[in-house]
Amino acid sequence: MDKLINILQDKVKNAFKECGYDEEYGKVITSNRPDLCQFQCDGALSAAKEYKKAPFLIAEEVVEKCKDCNEFERIEVIKPGFININISNSFLTDYCNNMIKEEKFGCIMEKDKTVVVDYGGPNVAKPLHVGHLRPAIIGESIKRIHKFFENKVIGDVHLGDWGLQMGLVIEELKFRHPNWDYFSEDFKGEYPKEALFTVSDLEEIYPCASKKTKINENMTKEEIEKANEFKENARKNTAYLQAKKKGYYDLWKKIVEISVIDLKENYKKLGVEFDLWLGESDSQKYVDKMVEKMKDLGIIYESDGAMVVDVEEESDETCIPPCMVLKTGGVSCYQTTDLATIMQRQIDFKPDEIIYVVDKRQELHFIQVFRCARKAKIIDENSKLTFLGFGTMNGKDGKPFKTRSGGVMRLENLIYEVNQKVYEKISNTKEMKEEEKIKISNIVGLAALKYADLSNQISKDYIFDIDKFTSFEGKTGPYILYTLVRIKSILNKFFENSTIKENVILEPIENEEKEMLLKIAKYNQVLEESYKENAPSKICIYLYELANIFNSYYQKVKILNGDKERLNSNIVLLSLMKEIFENGINLLGFEAPEKM
Questions:
Q1: 478 to each of 57, 425, 454, how far by Cα in Å?
Q2: Domain 411-588 falls in which CATH fold?
């Protein structure tokens, strides 16, 4: 099903062509002055320069050709040469009725495209914190949008489980428990089946280990030597781990095992799921093969003990440093595992695209990695590598979001605070039982959190305001859900005693009704734009605008108690709106309660 705007555009383009002008001047856009018209075409202004003719005269010719088109209720020229368009009620109504018949609102499916979405990226042995919120929420929505367009989508958490942080954790465990069998060179037996530590232990161990490596100007020579020794031991542990040394490797597997159990539980609370729970470690087996390929191509060389590949290009306006493939001593680094992971994904999935949902401050890293992957030919030349860099979630002070005490807030604590804020707003609702209030608070709280994040452009920083985001009014998740629940309530009341006679919407008679149909007719366009641009914010904005239009309509029209002849049409219209709202929030990663 072609998009509404494309149908209009084809008519205007044909008119330009019939008048002897390039049809590309017939581009139609949604009007930026909805008080004057619904759509507009400004092509005559540009055409005037090429054809050396007054834009008003060009526009008049084009409009004359369009006068008899059934799609237009009004098409006119506004000086100096704007073409203003309003569409007819019959065309608009027919279009929405066709949307009802079409699958997926008439969106054109991609199909047969394989897409890997890399989002999450938590480190094992550490709790999820607010810094993990954006990649998880954005990545989940991107994955759902691509699945909606019938791509084969693989979501990968890509755990940080293979770097120096693991060496630090192991060194701290060795410091606290030097007699563990894991650290004995002579031990030949079986290691414990149950972990000798808990997730809580690990959450305390890593910051403690990291702190021991910090050096400052107030430290004594002895303290500096001690810090350097601890860090050097951690590096050795990392090398042992990457060489799969017995004991160290077995201990690491236990660390990963209990960390993943905890991570899965916390991501579940966030409504985020992954198809793969792979980590940096899973790509390690591809490293040697990858390096050999780079050697065969003659692109890798030694620099200060490290192995690097030049990735700078002539068109670069700033210096792009070489991509470090291996550290001194052949130790893996972030570039190593990211490159090897690309190779792994190429072998396993042959993806058409890999989308990385990561902090925008990592852009240089991914420029290096993507260019190196292309140069090393470890990714198909037709496969797309997409860096989707997100901004930070900041507090009201404009700085990265912290707890009241100044620390980094754990993600589960943030979710709890948002849910509690919603609970406070509905706690006086007498017709709800306590258990129901808690359940609804959790559903609405998650919507508040996700909508607040996704309604912003991905690359932009935003201020987290818990009072604003949990409001039941304005551009918020709770407002969207409240509107949907209201629609569901009307429909439930109707279907208690009645059924739909005919699944058809009648031509609108109220202005609000026409606005609603016009907004509905644009849904497939919004979905396709969100998909092509990886922009869930477009769905957020659309749902907010649709909710506003519906609530104005609700205040003016007696949906169930008004004109009996239009009752069936009203219910069909609301049923379509319900379907759109439910589809939209599902793509954003949350759901609606039955009542609020």
A1: 50, 11, 14
A2: Isoleucyl-tRNA Synthetase; Domain 1 (1.10.730)
- Token couple for 288: 């040697």
Helix (H, G, I), strand (E, B) or coil at 159: strand
Fill in the DSSP letter of residue 85: E
Residue pLDDT, tens place only, 533-563: 999 999 999 999 999 999 999 999 889 987 8
Token representation of residue 280: 């940096």
Q: Cβ neighbours of residue 20 under 8 Å, at least 6 residues apart?
A: none
pLDDT bin (cut points 50, 70, 90) of residue 405 is: low
The 8-class DSSP code of residue 354 comes to: E
The full DSSP string for 138-156 is HHHHHHHHHHHTT-EEEEE
**The CATH homologous superfamily of the domain defined by 114-159+273-394:** HUPs (3.40.50.620)
- Please say whether the structural domain 4-87 has been given the CATH code 3.30.1360.70: yes
Look up residue 546 and give its two tokens: 């649709």
pLDDT digits (tens, 9 = 90+) for 27-59: 999 998 999 999 999 999 999 999 999 999 999
Q: Other C-beta atoms within 10 Å of 190: how many?
A: 8
pLDDT per residue as tens digits for the range 362-374: 999 999 999 999 9
Domain positions in the chain = 4-87, 114-159+273-394, 164-269, 411-588
Give CA–CA dist 481/592, Å, rounded: 6
Burial class (CB in 10 A: 0-12, 13-18, 19+), 198: exposed
SS3 content of the chain, % helix, strand, coil (to 5): 55, 10, 35
d(CA 325, CA 308): 5
DSSP H or E stretch at residue 39: strand 39-41
Q: Angle, to 10 degrees, between the axis of helix 434-454 and the axis of helix 564-588?
A: 70
Parallel, antiparallel or unpaired: strands 353-359 and 114-118: parallel
Q: According to the model, what pLDDT value does residue 404 have?
A: 67
For 496-532, letters b (16+ CB in 10 Å) and e give: eeeeeeeeebbebeeebbbbbbbbbbbbbbbbbebbe
CA distance 107 to 99: 9
Q: Which residue has the higher pLDDT, 407 or 360?
A: 360
pLDDT band at 133 (very low <50, low <70, confident <90, very high): very high
Q: What CA–CA distance (Å, rounded) separates 596 from 229? A: 59
Both tokens assigned to 447: 């919507």
The residue-averaged pLDDT of 237-254 equals: 94
192 prior amide bond cis, ω within 30: no
Q: Centre a 10 Å sphere on the Cβ of residue 234 and count the other Cβ atoms it contains.
A: 24
Tokens encoding 315: 């068109």
Q: For 561, which DSSP code? A: T
Q: What are the tokens at 79?
A: 């000086």
